[in-house]
Amino acid sequence: MVRTDLALPAGVGMPALVVSAGERAGVRFPVFFASSIRSSHRRRA
């Protein structure tokens, strides 16, 4: 499931590579960095 309710703060732009990759990449890029990792092992790392 892709979250589309995430927004970048004002003044922050997307990297050129992500922009050139299209709209879907523009949505998935911030989701990748803002989402939680659901794993019981993440606290050990």
Low-pLDDT residue spans: none
Estimated share of beta-strand residues: under 5%
Count of strand segments: 0
Shape: elongated
End-to-end Cα distance: 26 Å
Instruction: Report the C-alpha radius of gyration, rounded.
Output: 13 Å
Biggest beta-sheet profile: none
Describe this structure in words.
- The chain is elongated and about 35 Å long.
- It has two helices and no strands.
- The protein has helices at residues 16-21, 23-34.
- Helix content is 40%, strand content 0%.
- It has 45 residues and is mainly alpha-helical.
Top keywords for this entry?
elongated, 45 residues, 0% strand, 40% helix, mainly alpha, 2 helices, single chain
Secondary structure elements and their pairing?
Layout: H1 16-21, H2 23-34
